[in-house]
Each structure stands twice: as structure tokens, then as C-alpha cells.
Amino acid sequence: MIISRGERVFQWVNVAFLVLVAVVALFPVLYLVSMSLTPLEVLYKYGGFRVIPPQVTLEAYKQILSTPLIPRAFMNSVIITAVGTTINLALTIITAYPLSKRRLPGRSVLTLLVTFTMMFSGGLIPSYLLVKNLGLRDTYWAVILPGAIATYNLLVMKGFFESLPEELNEAARIDGASEWRVLTSVTLPLSKPVIATLGLFYGVGHWNGFFDAMMYISDSRLLPLQVVLRNILMDAMRNTEVTPDAIQVMPGETLKMATVVIALIPVLLAYPWVQKHFTKGVLIGSIKG
Amino acid sequence: MGIGLNLRKYAPLYIMLIPGIVYYLLFRYGPMYGLIIAFKNFNVFDGILGSPWAGWTHFEALFKNPQFTRILTNTVVISLLKLVCGMPPAIILALMLNELRGQWFKRIVQTASYLPHFLSWVMIYGILFAFLSPGTGLINQWIKGFGGDAIGFMSDKHWFVPVLVLSEIWKDVGWGAVLYLAGLAGINPELYEAATVDGAGKWKQTWHISLPGILPVIMLVLILRMGSVLNAGFEQIYILYNPNVYAVSDIIDTWVFRNGIEQMKFPIATAAGLFKSVIGFALVLISNKLARKYTESGLW
């Protein structure tokens, strides 16, 4: 195939532009890491942060790990994410599976009632009062139970189950397998990609979850990382001059950015692993604004 | 006999459904029952049912409140700005990714561009602080380096909404491009071959084949986003805003939160929430109808 000059120029411009896009997406994250490693001397010497710090120090991380505040919040987030995602997936699977059986009487009414909740909700105040009246405040359940099933994810899972060949299930049933066994030994092994993808969505949702925890949890020992992180950053925003703790070894910003980086690490670790499971059907989720 | 047989046959499936049904009744339909508060002079001691009826008084108070016009305008303006400014970059990114020949490079760019989608707004608040704070923010360091005065991007009425829109684009442009890429992948390659034979260049091919090819996707996204126009980005705005910029960034959701949860004015806050839910529901129904009519695919 002959590639014209214009075509070659176009390809180079295109590649250059897309490299720029990738840099714009990644640079802010890398800059956070760079700030989190910057010692105070650099600020004195240059009057500000450098993109590539001439000196680096792990002092901020040492300091964060030496007080209980961040490690405790980190563990709270780990517990909420692990328990929450497990409950999310279990409930989504056992609800989506019966709803995917076309011959189940009542299936269309139930599906309609479920879909309706995507379009109309009681809103913030009634939900808040419900959680309060159930006595869930100041427990992890307050941030796990109200969102136990995301309706959109439920419909994705149901659609996936419906796309599996029913003959496989029939064969297992004729062999005397119970419905439960068909689900666990025929359907679920075929559903790994969708489970991985929805698990990532649920998991990231819990890890990044902020609002419910801020509303429902006031006991500081139970607060998850995002809420603690915001409190730390709020102080930073209010007091943009050099903060008192900077008088020691590092700028206050360094400590703050190190906290953001710590919150980022689990997301970065999980990301490439599940990214390969993304499927076209599931990614339709990006429609929801 | 038929019913008995059915029940036995389907009993395990119905049993599986029980936790899900309990969940939906309690946590999804339960709050809908709580909407009655909007019509009650609610007090905590008498509860939802025991509190005296108030008719439409809370709605009258809401619509007469001078802040109401402001929060409604802010909600719609911010939402539309995000839609109008956010869609073209996602479409352009998809078109450019689609032109790439090397799969590995495409995968790298895509992986990088999705990443911000998985960051929380609190983390992005930290990133914005690193770039925009008047004291040490990178962009203000540059401005000062060129002899300018530091700009308080997060506390300035003129800058705050652009910060909201741009940070949202940064977060979601790569993720948004996925849909259009899927649409582009569905275009028949023979169309491009025929166009090349006819001497059509890249621009012509993009204009006459690629864009028309993904027009149904564009329409669908546009219509469905119109249906959620009252969702202007609650969490983002709540985390980023401050009293200096309430005038331009206070939306229905943030107003409901401050009045309801913080000041415990439950009935009027519930009334505002119900107003939003009802209008939102109508918009979703209308937009879905439009989607069906013009693109032959809708939410349901």
C-alpha cells in the first residue's frame, strides 16, 4: 500500500496530539508524587515547588505512618471496600440471576420496579432520615447497605446472564443439579469478566466514597480515608501560607500530597489488573453523566 | 395444579430474590415514602405519620425563596456547560484514537486517558490545590514567574465555574470517548476504502463517513444527558466549593444538603428534593421517548 505524504504528516500530528493527551492525563498525578517527595530546602532555594525536585525525601511518608490518623483511616477504607464489594457482588448476582430467567412468573413486574428506581428516588433527606431511624449512623453499615445494589450494575449483570446459552443450564438441570448449583458451577465460571468489571466499579466506588461517610459517620475513629483526606486538604486551602508544621522538616503541602498519593496507590494497583476485563457492553456505563 | 407445580419449580429462584426485594423495598422505596415529609410540618418527636399536614406551604415557601431561582439557574447552567464543553473533546479524542494503526500505542493512550475517571473528587481537590493554590500552586507559580499576580481560582466567581467544567472534562474525557470508539468500530471499513479510491482525504472521510456513522451515538448521549440535566455534579461541587463562590455554584443538591442535613430544615429541603425528582423523572421520560424516535435505541 502506498502511503501518501499527507497521510504520513497526518499520522505524525495525530500521534503527537495523543501523546499530549496521555501526558495531560498523567502529569497531575506524577506532579503530586513529586510534591510529596519535596523537602523544605527546595522551597527556600527556589521559592516554590519544582516539577522535578532537585532533592527528594521520604520524610512526609514516615511522618504520616508514625501517627495513627492516616493508617487507621486507610484500614477503615480497606474494611469498607472489602466487605462492601463482597456484599454488592453477592446481592447483585443472586438478584440478577432469577431476573434473567425469561420464564420466571413476575419477572417483568420486578424488573420494572427495579428500573423505576433509576429514574425516581426519594432523594437525600428521606434517605438520610431512613438511615438515621434504622440506627445505622456511626457504623460501617451506613455506607455499605444503602448502596448495596447499584441498579445499573444489576441490569448489566442480568443482561450478561441472559446472553449465556440456556442449553448449558438445562443440561445441568437434567443431570439433577439444583438451581443454586447451576448458578455457582455453570453460570458464574462463565461470568468472570463481568464480575471482575462490576467488582472494580463497586470497589472503586467504596474506596472513593465520600458523601455517605461524611453524612453518617461522626466518630473520628471510624472515618474512611477520603473524609480524613478532605479535612486535611480543607485546612490546606484555608491556610495557604506556609503552615506551622512546615517549620520542622517539610512544607505542609508535602504532607498533604503524600496523603493523596497514599489514597491513590490502591486504585493504581487494581487498575491495570482489571482493565483488561473491560468489555464494550459494560462500558456503556459511561453514558450516565 | 399448574400454580403448585410452578411454585415448586421456581421456589429456589424466588428464594434467591428475597434479599434483593427486601433491599429495594427498604432502601429504594422506603425513602419514597419519606417524601411525605414535604407535605408535613415535620418534627422528630411525632415522626413522619404523626406530624401535622402542611399542604403545599413548603413548596410555596420554596418557590418564593429568592435563592431558589439562583440554585435552579446554577444547576442548569453548570450542567449544560459541562455537556456542551465536554462532548466535543470526547468525540475528537475517539476520532483520533480511531485513526491509529498501532494497537499497543492506542492501548497505552486509552489506559492513560481512563485513569482520571477512577480518581475520587477528594483526590482531584488535592490535585487542583497543587496546581491552583495562590501560594504554591504550579500555575500561580508560573503566573508569578512572568510577573503577574496570583489568581484565586477556587475562590473567584469568574474562575470557579470554568474550574468545575475543566476538571470534569479532565476526569471523564477518556472514559467518554469509549462509547464513540465503539460506534466507530462498527462502521463498515469498505466505506473508507471506497472513499480513498475516490480520492477523499482524511477531513472528507471524517466529515462524511465517521461523524455520520457515530451520529446515533452522539444523539443518544445528548438526549440521555438532557434527561439528567438537574444533576450538575453534587459531589464535585460540594467538595470544591466554598462560600465565596456560592453565587455561581450553589445547585439544588448542595442547597438541599445545607438546608436539610446541616440546618435540619427537613420539610423545605425535602420539598426541593421532590421538585428535583419529579422534574428529573419527566425529563428522563421525555428524553427516552426522543431517543427511541430518533435513534431507535433508548434506556429501555
User: Strand count, sense and closure of the main sheet of chain B?
Assistant: none
Arithmetic mean pLDDT of chain B = 91
Mean pLDDT of chain A: 87
Strand percent estimate of chain B: under 5%
Number of strand elements of chain A: 0
Shape of chain B: globular
Low-confidence stretches of chain A: 240-249, 279-289
Count of individual beta strands of chain B: 0
Distance between the termini of chain B: 35 Å
Radius of gyration of chain A (Å): 25 Å
Biggest interface and its residues per chain?
Answer: A-B, 94 and 99 residues
Helicity range of the residues of chain B?
over 70%
Judged by helices, strands and strand pairing, the structural class of chain B is: mainly alpha
Order of helices and strands of chain A: HHHHHHHHHHHHHHH
What is this structure, in a nutshell?
The complex is a heterodimer of chains A (289) and B (300). Chain A has helices at 5-36, 40-46, 59-66, 69-99, 107-119, 124-133, 141-144, 151-163, 166-174, 179-190, 192-208, 211-216, 225-238, 252-275, 280-283.
Can you describe what's shown?
The complex is a heterodimer of chains A (289) and B (300). Chain A has 289 residues and is an all-alpha fold. Chain A is 71% helix and 0% strand. In chain A, helix 1 packs across helix 14 (252-275). By secondary structure, chain B is mainly α. Chain B has helices spanning 2-34, 47-50, 57-64, 66-98, 103-114, 121-132, 138-145, 157-185, 189-197, 202-227, 234-240, 246-249, 252-262, 266-295. The radius of gyration of chain B is 25 Å and the shape is globular. The mean pLDDT of chain B is 91. The interface between A and B is large, with 94 and 99 residues.
